[in-house]
Amino acid sequence: MTTTASTPTTVPPLRPASVRHGGVTNAISDAMTLIGRSIRLTRRNADTMVMSVVLPLLMMAMFVFVFGGAISTGTEYINYVVPGIIILCTGYGASSTAMSVADDMTSGMIDRLRSLPIRSSAVLVGHVTASVARNAVATAIVVLAAVGMGFRPNATFGEWLLFGGLVLLYVLGLTWLAAAFGAVSKSVESAGLFGFVMLFVPYLSSAFVPTDTMPAFLRPLSEHQPITPVIETVRGLLTGTPIDRGGAALAWTVGVLVVAFVVAVRLYRSRTSR
């Protein structure tokens, strides 16, 4: 009687970017496949989309109709607060990427993808692209609702384009940062902490009140954190207030995007190659 030694099967790691069979064409095909998957998941997970819109709308209504009469900003408060709400909306929407990536990491989806000739970066590209598309819809709804509440932007066509470009860079940076957070999270619940951070940080900025009304110990943090110049630049583009920190806003958004992209890809590859 003979026995045949069984060879343990191992799951191959996701194909790194350096292994390119088919070059750019296959890279685009991989990315499009995973983008389609992420968009389908977004349609099925309607509560994420609803919350990314409803929460900013509720906060905007609360600040405009409940607190607006007690807050002096030198202008109509709704024109002051809407740019901050837009940035809060995009930040909170981007944070859901952390949970999506963490779900893939902990549900066994990555193990199934390892058996396919798919580049590892395509998984993150799928999540990030779907998040940006979801954010674009949510932001448009928030702007339209703000106009219905009395927001009156006076931006030119060129200023609207600059606004869109800056917000896109900001969303991309935060989405890749969320992807990095999701890649190292041990559970979907822990990845959800990123959403709490993105809801809290705008309060320590000029989103809702001018920074010079804050206590002295908070003012330096509020004035020099990355979100403040982004909000002030968006406010200037939409409402015509002076834009003094446009360069800082661009530098912060591009810097966060580059660093977050590199970190997210490296952390993801490190974890999926184990």
Automatic annotation (TrEMBL):
It holds the Pfam family ABC2_membrane. PROSITE patterns: ABC_TM2 (PS51012). Keywords: Antibiotic resistance, Cell membrane, Membrane, Transmembrane, Transmembrane helix, Transport. It is a multi-pass membrane protein. Residues 47-271 form the ABC transmembrane type-2 domain. InterPro entries: ABC2_TM, ABC2_TM_bact-type, ABC_2_transport, Nod_factor_ABC_transporter. The chain crosses the membrane at residues 49-71, 77-101, 122-148, 160-184, 191-209, 249-268. The keyword Transmembrane applies. Belongs to the ABC-2 integral membrane protein family. This is Transport permease protein. It comes from Pseudonocardia aurantiaca. The lineage of its organism: Bacteria, Bacillati, Actinomycetota, Actinomycetes, Pseudonocardiales.
